[in-house]
Write a structure and sequence with these properties.
The protein is an all-alpha fold and about 100 residues long. The protein is built from five helices and no strands. The chain has one domain. α1 runs antiparallel to α2 and α1 runs parallel beside α3.
Length: about 100
């Protein structure tokens, strides 16, 4: 491998880690009440852009008095749908990646 290839790989890994860690940095910077959960879900964002986008939104909106967001979060927590939603987002991301590689 040439030096340029090694530098390109290092830059790609760095950008990927920054991309994956951005929701965590936002959550910890804003002292989000669910920042540890966001940190646990963040590695899965490598598989799904939709999950990464959802984590960014979740990390940026930490207000508990937002009635619309609170209503949906309460509904998800009561029905224990969190793992299913995350799994669905990962599946959609993988399906989209597979479709783009196939085409």
């Amino acid at each position: 491998m040439t030096t340029y290839q090694l530098v390109a790989i290092a830059v790609a890994v760095g950008v990927t880690l920054l991309f994956c860690g951005l929701p965590v940095m936002i959550a910890f910077g804003r002292r989000h009440p669910d920042r540890r959960t966001i940190a646990k879900l963040s590695p899965l964002a490598l598989l799904s852009f939709a999950l990464w986008f959802a984590l960014i939104l979740w990390a940026a909106t930490d207000r508990k008095d937002d009635s619309i967001v609170a209503r949906y979060i309460d509904r998800i927590q009561k029905r224990n749908l969190g793992p299913w939603i995350v799994g669905g987002l990962v599946f959609i991301g993988l399906a989209g990646t597979a479709a783009s590689l196939y085409l």
